[in-house]
Design a protein that fits this description.
mainly alpha, 9 helices
């Protein structure tokens, strides 16, 4: 299977899950799991808590955070590794900064309300019950958020495939 086919599988699965379930973070992680079998099902399940700007808190985009977790699973060192080799933490840090910068280049922000402005023309703050309900009533919100999910999955997938293709 080619690199582009793998990216398409991950993005398509994530977009389909987002449109169906409307859970950005879990949809992103689910899409990545379709290509990277080392991602545990428990992480897909746990990523639900990142939805809506992390815990429906209108902070960092849930799909972005799910991408960070996948990148972290592959590149971060364990605490035991860091005890023996303190410099080991630098690789993980460099990779999460790379992911952040690549997502920012594509979307311009990592913040859920700012991403809302891009796709809806206004922001929604989920900690405000009225705004959260207004968002939920938008017939297109799951489809529009799928655009952002696709971006996060594409960037994470590209980075993870770069690593695999380098034989690491």
């Amino acid at each position: 299977m080619t690199r582009q086919e793998k990216i398409k599988i991950a993005v398509d699965a994530a977009v389909e899950a987002q449109i169906r379930d409307d859970i950005c973070a879990r949809s992103a992680m689910y899409g990545l799991k379709q290509v990277f079998d080392w991602i545990p099902e428990d992480l897909v399940t746990a990523s639900l808590s990142l939805a809506g700007g992390c815990g429906a808190g209108s902070g960092s985009c849930g799909a972005y955070c799910a991408g960070l977790l996948a990148v972290g699973m592959r590149f971060n060192s364990t605490m035991d590794e860091e005890k023996e080799h303190p410099e080991a933490i630098e690789r993980g840090c460099a990779k999460f900064v790379e992911f952040r910068d690549r997502f920012l280049k594509e979307r311009g922000t990592i913040l859920c309300p700012e991403l809302h402005k891009q796709v809806f023309g206004r922001s929604y703050v989920f900690t405000d019950p009225a705004q959260h309900e207004e968002f939920a009533q938008r017939a297109d919100h799951n489809v529009k958020c799928a655009e952002i999910v696709a971006s996060a999955v594409k960037v994470a997938c590209e980075m993870l495939l770069d690593y695999e293709e380098a034989g690491q």
